[in-house]
Amino acid sequence: MAEAADGVDAADGARPTVLTVVGARPQFIKAAPVSRALAAGGYDEVLVHTGQHYDDGLSGVFFDELDIPRPDYHLGVGSGSHGEQTGRMLSALGERIAAVDPEFVVVYGDTNSTLAGGIAASKLDTTLVHVEAGLRSGRREMPEEVNRLMTDHAADVLLAPTERAMESLAREGLSERAHRTGDVSADAVRWARERAPAVADVFADLGVDDPPAAGEFVLATVHRPRNTDDGARLRAIVKTLTDSPLPVVFPAHPRTTAALEEHGLLEALEESESVILVEPVGYLGFVRLMSAADRVLTDSGGVQKETFLLGTPCVTLREETEWPETVEAGWNVLVGADPEAMAAGLTGEVPEAPADSPSPYGDGDAASEIVEVLDGVRS
Ligand code: UD1
Ligand code: UDP
């Protein structure tokens, strides 16, 4: 029997072990429903946190809220250039996977933690499983696109959220390893929606003295390097927010706060009458904000999908999306950082609510589908 460092039993002979790699905000949210389904399905899970995100608002809060166990191992890798960060994770994950000796290593999405977990596992005698496989933006300059491509091609089991993702995998010759499971974000949103009302007053938690009424504010998030690192784009986005006729609640990612400061834009936001600049919000509070907002302005991948599932119109600050279903349904509009298109997106007419079913993202039972696929791989 392998005995991992710090006392985690890798195999007790009865229950198969899954080693899950997480590290960044969206991964804690996506892993939560799968953790619950794995436990219910008779698997032991060893949760490894790379430490890519470490602020309480980007990490700790999700472990407090999402009913997932604390990580068994925290690698404490922290921030750095892509090469440095991914390299440190790769080395530490390789050691950990070898020590735990799991049957499956599960990685989520498209961050540097995903890629490091993918490379580390593919070099060892374990089965690499990629949740959210097959997504493509078509923009190779995006760090996430490279991470997705490389992880998909390294993985043994590809779990695709949508039919589109299955088609992308087929185009790359990966169909044999691919399974369509639905999207775990639908599971996460369903779970949170039932619990979000318990967050009595998200505005009070955020220290907002004069909160806007439901339906009378815009929610904004920005964190893609394409928007934060390009001064002209960031300036245009800030101007759109400060010119907004409705108040804008803006939970700023630390990358964005740093970029705003660097480009001399932070003061304009802090002093703006229309912008309520706050720290990142926990998931339950954020689901409440997405549900209550008139519309959401974002460059996040997860938020485009969640707004679609929650029935809130989305204005996306990008030129392309991995989630074209939201655009085809008329529920998401891609405006890049073009001033006129952003303003039109903010004030234009609200579309019809997307049809309830069939949802391109499944019915919120992707996590149990994933466990069924793993059962099938074992048998
Ligand atoms: C990462 C992912 C991105 C994902 C996002 C989710 C990569 C390449 N990017 O982007 O795909 O959409 O997470 O939020 O993996 N920082 C802090 N505190 C933290 C974490 C980061 O202050 O807890 C600051 C550091 O200055 C750091 C910067 O944010 O350099 C960027 O963090 P990093 O994890 O490299 O990328 P994200 O922009 O968060
Ligand atoms: N989110 C959150 N609090 C926030 C902003 C986002 O809980 O202040 C959640 C959001 O609901 C989604 C996920 O974080 O589930 C998206 O993370 P992010 O936008 O950082 O990454 P991406 O999805 O673009 O990779």
UniProtKB/TrEMBL annotation:
InterPro entries: UDP_GlcNAc_Epimerase_2_dom, WecB-like. Transmembrane segments: none annotated. Residues 347-366 are annotated as: Disordered. Residues 42-374 form the UDP-N-acetylglucosamine 2-epimerase domain. Pfam families: Epimerase_2. This is UDP-N-acetylglucosamine 2-epimerase. It comes from Candidatus Halobonum tyrrellensis G22.
